[in-house]
Amino acid sequence: MSLKTSPATTRESGSMIGYSDEPKSAAELVARYRDVKRRLYPAPSLSPTCGVTAADAGNLLAFVLAVVAVTAERARESRKRADRARGRVGAETPGSKARAALRAVSQRTGVPVDAILGRKRLSAIVAARHEAVRRVREVTKWSLPRVGQFFAGRDHTTILHSVRHMEDRATRDPELRAYMASVKQICPMQRPAVPR
């Protein structure tokens, strides 16, 4: 058998006869596969111009310059806003007033801010939370839902309950009443008391 066209077994030896150009290893098989694939599906050639005409290049350049100009203008505006904001560094925002009031109540009561904003209902924490709600409501012009949002997403009716509870406590406790009056003198309330 000089011409081997298909694998077959010989009658004498019982061994397999294969193609003469069969790959001997997996690496050789992968290399042949890649070679065939490269011949069947040639990669597109990249020309130096990539098909860009002079008009396209001009339009592309104009677009890039316009983007750079807009970006530079936005950066200038951003710097101006930052400079104006730096000029107001000493000015307090409602959020900073609320955080300051929360810290003041925390220092006065000895209850950590995280506990005041948390969900625990121990009596000392709840009393501090009521006081903090009342004080934040006094120092900001926030509505009940906004105060509730500041206090970890509580409902506005919970905030209303806290404010009313503090008013009830103040009628019974002269020390608390004096403290609330001193807070009102420091930052007078901008709205009428919550009606019952």
Structure, described:
By secondary structure, this protein is an all-alpha fold. The chain has a domain at 94-186: Chromosomal Replication Initiator Protein Dnaa, Chain: A, CATH 1.10.1750.10. Helices cover 63% and strands 2% of the residues. It contains eight helices and two strands. The chain has helices spanning 26-40, 54-87, 94-109, 113-117, 123-139, 144-150, 156-172, 174-186; strands at residues 8-9, 16-17. A two-stranded antiparallel ribbon has the order 1-2. A hairpin with a 6-residue loop joins β1 (8-9) and β2 (16-17). α3 runs antiparallel to α5 (123-139), α5 (123-139) crosses α7 and α7 (156-172) packs across α8. The radius of gyration is 40 Å and the shape is elongated. The N and C termini lie far apart (111 Å).
Instruction: Describe the main β-sheet briefly.
Output: 2 strands, antiparallel
List the quaternary state of the chains: single chain
Strand order of the largest sheet: 1-2
* Elements, N to C (H/E): EEHHHHHHHH
Runs in which pLDDT lies below 50 for 5 or more consecutive residues are none
CATH topology of the domain at 94-186: Chromosomal Replication Initiator Protein Dnaa, Chain: A
Number of strands: 2
